[in-house]
What we know:
This protein is of the alpha/beta class. Helices cover 46% and strands 17% of the residues.
Amino acid sequence: MGRVGFGVAVGCAVLTCAIAAALVGKRARSRRRWWRAVEVVREFEEGCDTPVGRLRQVVDAMAVEMHAGLASDGGSKLKMLLTFVDALPDGNEEGIYYALDLGGTNFRVLRVQLGGKVSRILNHQVESQPVPQELMNGTSENLFDFIALTLKDFVERENDGFQQKKDDGRALGFTFSFPIRQISVSSGALIKWTKGFSIEDAVGQDVAHLLQEAITKRGLTMQVAVLVNDTVGTLALGHYYDQDTVAAVIIGTGTNACYVERVDAIIKCQGLYTNSGVMVVNMEWGNFWSSHLPRTSYDIALDDESPNPNDQGFEKMISGMYLGEIARTVLLRVAHESDIFGDATQNLSVPFSLSTPLMAAMHEDNSPDLSQVRGILEENLQMSDTSLKARKLIVRVCDIVTRRAARLVAAGIVGILKKIGRDGSGGGNSGKTKSRPRRTVIAIEGGLYVSYSIFREYLNEALVEILGEDVAQNVILRVSEDGSGNGAALLAAAYSSDR
Length: 499
């Protein structure tokens, strides 16, 4: 071999070694970046850990805050609002009743015919109507006149399916899912608007009175019999079918809970007259907070950047509005500290670009190659060509977020049971050292529990862990469909004079 040939051979060998070294170095860097991605997720998982001991601390904290909120106005993060509902429907109600449900940008009007113990709900009709944007920021007179006009049109179209003479002089239940200070079972002053409404002249006003004025103005003789929020309606519907129902939980886009409390346990309302000695309390539990809640840096950042920092802390860890957003911020951190998602991560930087329904769909993908995860990433986040191991890491993040939320909801539910002495510990209002487990039904409404099977499994599993099998088998979580509407109509029946 000549010098030239030898030189070429040596040069090729050197080049080959250099390429090999570069490839080895690239693989090593890739491995380091992958393990950094795994480490980010592992740190997040540790921060979200909810062992049963911690859950029991949350249970105790919930019960303590419930006591404090009942003892004094402003004594707790839990508002513990009195609803003045001291009678729940029991199945004996008969007749036709109406309900209005104003809970956001849509409102609904319902007509329900009740047939007593034998027939229960004979007929049911519901119509939904969007609230025009200009009415959401206008005057109270215009908003409630619009609602009354829609109600009148609905009443006048009562069809032959309802086995009773057409008559608008019936009791009306009004579901108003905005913060109010209840004055009586049929009246309450608006504290503030949420969900995009900003009608200044309605704040501080009795919203049931505003509605009644509009209804009367439109020539209807219908009377607003009850004013409730969606959680109370859910409890009413649950109790209608099963009188062991003592609480209700909404766990969907937002979250809240209410329960039946003994009046003698409500210090701030002593002296109020009730027929039954009990009253439904609206907890507004989304605002619950405790140092025992497993809060991470991602939760802190979400809260800081929200329109209501230092508010609704529990809701921001457990409700559908926020779970997808928490997962997104973790994945964005992974993208910043590794290259497992490639360069197509721009949409991960957009707040709320990963919704909770999309997160749930990825979490519940059972295909071998996680094809649904890939499709969601490509279509909604423009993240293409993700590897299978990257998709598995994404599913793991979804699992961590969901598991923590479901287990915290379970702890919140047990906190209610502890307060009313139904957790098997003998505490609560009973004053006994040990109580026999009683059949206890919790009405549940909301997409997280109803539609998200893994969330539901984690919640049920945590209930058994906290309560123990002997007590847990007596606690039934029962889905209550459309409690916010039907429940209001049932309460109108329970409080009507012609019951």
